[in-house]
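JOB MANIFEST
job_type = single_chain_structure
chain_count = 1
residues = 339
[input]
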Amino acid sequence: MSPYCDTYGGLVLNATIDRYCYATLEETLDGSIEFRAPDIGVIDNITSGDEAGSTPLYLHRAIYERMNRDFDLGRPRVRLTTMSDAPPGSGLGSSSTLVVSAIEAFREFFSLPLGEYDVAHLAFEIERNDYGQAGGSQDQYAATFGGFNSMEFGPAGRIVVNPLRIKEATLRELEAAIVLFHTGVSRNSADIIQRQTDHISSGATSQLEATHRLKDEAVAMVKKAVAAINTEGAEKVYAEISDPKGPFVDRDLYIVVLRMDGLVLAHGADKKRIRTNQLHDKDVDGKEFVKERMELAKSEPSFWQSYKFMNPVTKMIEPKQMYCERLNDTVVCGGVYQS
């Protein structure tokens, strides 16, 4: 959620469910621009002489106006109808999904050159900027891409969606363990998110401290390891780092030390990796994360890195954010799993 991810970055593990929003777009014969939402019992007809008037379906209007403006459609006389399986205010991202489905209807009807990233980004701008509803951008990308995804958020609106390959048996087990029901109570998430945004923008200490707690632990442990290596010597500290009961292992947080050529010198989770060269190791998505780490270390004294790796506690492949510091011809790292 901006502005947090613009400064600190972000990572979201997201899953979608088999509930949908449907949108149809068709030409009208009476010269009107019409919006319909039969699931909430609202129909709004804008005649040619009332195009500037207000509408109870303002989100539909915002979609129409943005698509017309961006693609020079000439204010087409169309009927936009939407219907959602999820009620408004249910917390399932129904409004974001509605925007995505409507954009897809426009894309299909007018043969617009839009890819998945284009659709998701446009949906975000319509809902957050044009419509003015506070919130993040993961809902629009989740609705567009579908399935299970790891989403990385960085400065200047940089977003990378990494689809996750999950075994069918795991999916079935997850589905069997989840119960979804509607309480009949809706809430306005925009109000909650706006308060969070205000806290971040103003630098509210308590809010940011809670958000950063896990990352802070990783940074502190790396700095502790670097200081120990400098004062007590590499040989002694490498042995402590590689001891699963030592001072540099805490739950799934541990230290790894690599030489700049990719040789593992110490490893808090897997001693078998010590004295092996991991330069061309790849994660489940084919990312050469060690090679990337060495490249970053050449130009940055400290940095964060994202990839997927086995969590020694859960024994599952999970998204991980690794904090690293360059120390002479080595890189000292410790990270947090996004489980």
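[summary]
The chain has two domains: 4-189, 212-337.
The chain has ten helices and 13 strands.
exit_status = 0
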